[in-house]
Amino acid sequence: MIEQLFGSKTRVKLLQLFYSNPNRSFYVREITRKIDEQINSVRRELSNLLNIGIITSDNTNNKLYYEVNQKFEYFTPLQQIFGGAKIKTPKMKAEDETEETTTGLKAVGHIDLAVYTGQFTRDDTAGVDILIIGDVNLNALQKYVDELEASENKSLRYAVMNLDDFKYRLQIRDRFAQAILKAKKQVLVDEHGLLSDNEKQASEETAEKVKE
User: Fold this and answer.
1) What is the pTM of this model?
2) Which of 57, 84, 111 delimits the end of a domain?
3) Which of 2, 82, 109, 161 is the most buried (most CB within 10 A)?
4) What tens digit of pLDDT does each residue of 38-80 get?
């Protein structure tokens, strides 16, 4: 049904990948590995999505990266369809990558905040690729990172701290905490609205300064 509505199973898989991972950037071979489709089919559908305006592309270090266009006029309804729904298609390796990731994090411990940035979003503002806030088992976290490195085929930097420490860093406007707020990121878990509340406050303060 979904495939018939949106044209092809490859297009459906691409839409699910992009809308389940806002702010994430992917290059072609990474995409083909994640959705398990032929590269020619992926290239063709990427071109279609680019022409429509659903995704954008950017060249970094001689690699062409693609990500969802959050300014696209139908971004919100499409994200409602593809961002959280499990769409079953043949040979799909991961029906919902974000859900699979958060499920894996549960084995690490109690997670208050989990963020992908750095290599995932091509923004090294924070100097890390993964931030984990919570009460975690460090051995289990290392295993999670090792498995993620294997699946992503890249070496990843991560930072971990407890909730009180991170709240304190936000309160005193610690450099690292501020870098996390400013960085382009994919938020996997934010139980207490730590980022959304502080980003909203920072936006309001900026607006007040402009008025002055």
Assistant:
1) 0.76
2) 84
3) 82
4) 999 999 999 999 999 999 999 988 889 999 999 999 999 999 9
